[in-house]
Amino acid sequence: MTKDKYYLGTLCKRGHDHEGTGKSLREKRRGHCYVCKLADVVLWKERHPERAKKIKIESRKRHKEKNKERECEDTRRWRLNNLEKSRAISRRCQRNASANLTDGYVRKLLTVKSSLRRKDFPQDLVDAKREVIKLERTIKRGGKNEEYKRCTGRSL
Ligand SMILES: [Zn+2]
To answer: Which residues have C-beta under 5 Å from ligand 1, the single-atom ion?
Structure first.
């Protein structure tokens, strides 16, 4: 909450006392009580859950779009100034992604032999691929490469 948008005015009808001052926090622009307004918003949301949800999603999207460019620029600048650190972080991220078989990592593997992009693969397929990788890793760790080759005709 920014101070320059609000002031302490006379106590509102519903008696929203601001931190024991005996006054209500009011909007400078229209003089509405801040707490009353919040309560009204909550009420409205309760009455129109679907519309509230839609508005929330849209505003988040707008916010993201607005900040996208700046965020990219900030990240780029930080990377240039912290090359070593940035490399270490990305190595750690990759190791972590590979160890935990994150969605992003599995999707990346799926794109290797496909013209589709990461986000084009359905989640079912990603989950299935993850299971295959787990299986392959288990077999590999168990030193059963020969058996694997005999069964699948492929090498690990
Ligand atoms: Zn009030």
So the answer is: 12, 14, 16, 33, 35-36
| Residue 135, domain extent | 103-156
CA of 17 to the centre of ligand 1 (A): 8
Cβ neighbours of 58 (radius 10 Å):
10
d(CA 112, CA 118): 10
Give the predicted TM-score (pTM) of the model. 0.43
pLDDT 10s digits, 29-68: 999 999 999 999 999 999 999 999 999 999 999 988 888 8
pLDDT per position as a tens digit, 105-118:
999 999 988 888 88
Cα(55) to ligand 1 centroid in Å equals 24
How close is the Cα of 20 to the center of ligand 1, in Å?
14
**Residue 149 included in any domain:** yes
Could you give the number of structural domains in the chain? 2
